UniProtKB/TrEMBL annotation:
It comes from Nesterenkonia cremea. The lineage of its organism: Bacteria, Bacillati, Actinomycetota, Actinomycetes, Micrococcales. Belongs to the MurCDEF family. Residues 154-342 form the Mur ligase central domain. ATP binds at G155, T156, N157, G158, K159, T160, T161. This is UDP-N-acetylmuramoylalanine--D-glutamate ligase. The gene is murD. It is an enzyme of class 6 (ligase).
Amino acid sequence: MTGEQTPEPPREPSVLPDLRGWDAEWKGLRAVVAGLGVSGFSAADTLAELGVHVTVLEGRNTEKQQNDAATLKIVGVTEVRLGSEHTGSLPQVPDAEGTLAVPDLLVTSPGWRPDSTLIAQAREQGVPVWSEIELAWRLGTRPGAKNPDWLVLTGTNGKTTTVMMLESMLIADGRRAIACGNVGVPVLDAIRDPEGFDALAVELSSFQLHYTERLNPLASAVLNIAEDHVDWHGSFEGYRADKAKIFENTQVACVYNAEEKLTEDMVAEADVQEGCRAIGFTTQTPGLSMLGLVDDILVDRAFLADRSRQALELGALADFGLTGQGGAPQHLVANTLAAAALARAAGVEPASIRQAILDYEPGDHRIQPVAKSGDVLWINDSKATNPHAAAASLRSFTDIVWIAGGLPKGVVYDELVAEIAPRLRQVILIGADSSQLRSSLERHAPSVPIIGPGVRDDESELSAEKLRSTDGDAAMRAAVAEAARLAQPGQTVLMAPAAASMDQFESYGHRGQAFIDAVAELMDSREDH
C-alpha cells in the first residue's frame, strides 16, 4: 500500500514543540534521566551528544551501574547519581557552570510509576516527562541516514513474538530492518545508526506509551487487551487508554484484533491521518479489509484491489513446522497475522511473509517443551506473566498439574480459574504472596487440590516456606519435586505463573531457566536410579 497516498506531515507536539529534529535548540538544556537500564543509558548518551547537560538518577549501585556511569561520563554526561537516596525526589541539576536549577526535561525509564514522587514532582513543577520513545520520535533519523517506516505494535501478550516475526518478514523482503523498542535495541540506538534503516519494527509497552505524547507511524497494531499492570496504571481504563495511544496519527493502517472488540473500539476512537484504514486480523474466516485463516491457509483480504472477491495466500499452518508439537497454536497464528498486516501495510510481498513463517523458531519461555518422562510432559511458559497469557497455554492441555503464582500486579483471577478449572488436576503455588490466586481457586475450582503457602495440605512433604522463599531457584526446585510426586501418566506439568516474577526471580527468563534446570536435575536423578 506504500505509495498510494502522500502522508500528512507529522503533527507538532503540544509540549516544547520547537524541540524537533537534530538541529533544534537542545544545547544547554538541563535534563534528568531516571533509570540507568538499557533505555536510560541510550537516552543519556543521546542527550549528551545533543549538548544537553544530563544528570542520571539510578537507585541501584552495583558494579554494572558503576561501569555504565563511568562510560557515560566519558561521553559527556554531567553527573550520574547512584543509590536509592537520589531517586526519592526531583533534584535541581547543574548546567555547564554548575548553577543549579529545576531541569527542563525528565526522560524516564518505563519502570517509574506515574505516582512516584519523582514523576509527581516533575508534573507539579511543569517539567515535561518523556519516554525514550518520545525523544526518538522527536529527533527522527540522524541527518544523512535513511528515514525509516515506523511499524509499531503493543498488546497485553504476544508483543515480542509478533515484532520478531515482523522483523523477519521485512528482512525477507530485502529491507534493512530491525526490531527495537521494548525488545532488541533501544529505538534511540536504531535512529542513530549511521546508515539508517528502511523500517523499524517497534514493540511498545503500556509504560512507554504512557510517557509518549504522539507518534507518526506508518502502521500500528494492538494485538489484544486484557487486565494487566492495573497497579501501575491505576485502573484498567488507564491501562487501556495508554495502549490506545499507539493508533494516534497513524498514516496507512491501524491493525486490530477482530476477535476482541475493545481493540476495534480503540481504532474507532483514534485521531488518525486522512486515508488511514482499519485492518482486522482473525484466526477465523476473514471479512473485507481483514487478514485471517481459511481452512489451514493464512490469507490477506485487505491489501489487494479486488478484495471483495479474492484473497492472497500468505502461508499455511504447515509452514510453521510445529506439527510434531500439536500444530501451530492459535495465539501464534494470531500474532503472525498481525505481523503480516503491518508488513503488508509497508508493501511487503506475500512470498516474503511465507518465508518468515518457514524460518520461524519458537522462543524460549513461551509454551516451551522441556522434557517428557513417564508419559508426563513438562512445559515452561514463564512468559505468561498475567492471566490472559496463561490462558493460552492452559487451553492447550487437558490434564494439568499447574505451577503458578507470583506478583499479581493488581489483576483478578476469577475468570481464568472458572474457565480452566475442568483441566486442572493439581495446583502448586509459588510466589511470596499468591493469596489472590489461591482465593480464586478455592472459589471456582474447589475440588482441585492446592499445595502452597496458606493452604492446609497434610500430604505434602514440602513446607510452604520453600515455595514462597525469596530464593527463587530453591522455590522452583521444591515446586518441581512436588509436581514429580503428584503427576500421573498422560498429564502435563505446566509452569505458567499468570503473575510477574520479581518477588522471587530477576526476570521471567530467570524463572523459566530455574524451571528448566530443576526439571533437568529431576531427569538426571531418575537416570541415576
